[in-house]
Amino acid sequence: MDKDLLKKYASLAVNTGVNIQKDNILVITSPIETAEFARLIAEEAYKAGAKDVIVHYGDQKLTKIKLENSSLETIADYPAWMAESYNSYARQGACFISISANDPDGLKGVSVEKIGTSQKARTSALKEYYDNSMSNKCRWCVLSVPTLSWAKKVFPNVSDEEAMENLWNVIFKTVRVDTENPVTAWEKHNAYLDEKVKFMNDNNFKSVHLKSSNGTDLNIELPEGHLWAGGSDDDVNGVFFNANMPTEEVFTLPKKTGVNGIVYSSKPLSYGGNLIDNFSITFKDGKAVDFTAETGYDVLKQMLDSDEGAKYLGEVAFVPYDSPISNSKLIFFNTLFDENAACHLAFGRAYESCVKDADKFSEKELEEKNKNFVLVILAIIGAVAAVAGIAYAVYKHLTPDYIDDFDSDGLEDFDDDFIEFSDTKPEAED
Known about the structure:
Helices cover 33% and strands 20% of the residues. By secondary structure, it is an alpha+beta fold. The radius of gyration is 20 Å and the shape is globular. The model is unreliable at 370-418 and 424-430 (pLDDT under 50).
């Protein structure tokens, strides 16, 4: 692999992803297979002025061994020292980079109950870390580099070497590292997303109606005081960062009780090392009340039953049809990429940045304003829980030039698909 491209990527992660400032602490979470890239990130972080770099390595194969051989009681007891590591660094305002690169089938065959118990225990133990991340008290970034098992899942019909090379090339393209100046490319990309965010916020739509020839027919109410976000964001001190690399979405939160209808997936979902594919979910008054799945039915059931809040949406996101990920025509079996190939929905906790003046309200008050707080943050990405959400497609992507129009070239099966906006504004708050 081209060493110069790798260094450019590591530098981009440090300087545009989490935007390291002098004397910042950086915490990296990496699969053991991607240790070389984690070292490059650490080196670039110190060059940028980081005071300290801490690396947590994960081993999915060891995780599977533990889950298969440990009792539920042991799995439910998340190590206090590990929780305090993340929580204490979050308390200090550290930056966090998570490398998402695990085998999509890495936990196949493991008890769904054990996977759910493990994820619930982790989320509960790391509540402070998640709270600080969701409220932008910490800057964080999720990105990916290839591992062999993942590359072979995406490119199964080529040699190991070719699969790795192919996935590297696709990743470099989707994160714009293949450009002459990736930082400048991201500045332009963030400006484009800012333009779309402004359009959505200026219009202050009351609802969104998603409809597809494949059966999707979903109406999503948007709460008063909602805000659209996307691309880069600012932490509480006004320092920008990009939480996801790649990212193509603009997103907001739905009204907790305002989601009704049915949505069908167009891409598989990799959850807890298991695939869920060809599935649908039916909503009534915001709650998922029914579902189907050709593959991974039990996994989807466990996910939705993890707690009451897991049945409610925390995000609705629009993605352009003409984008590097969408144009690749690949299924990545990785939520970080697949959610950025299509418009999508996400279960779990909403972002505080999507609530106007969120910092002025208590958690209880935010809940009353339709913010969906739940115990379990679903869609664990990589070795660290990334708060990107569980993505599943709704069959149509936005064009880059028009928020309310579509390019149907080559998509004859979807000619009647649409997204409809209600421009009726909610009454102004006192």
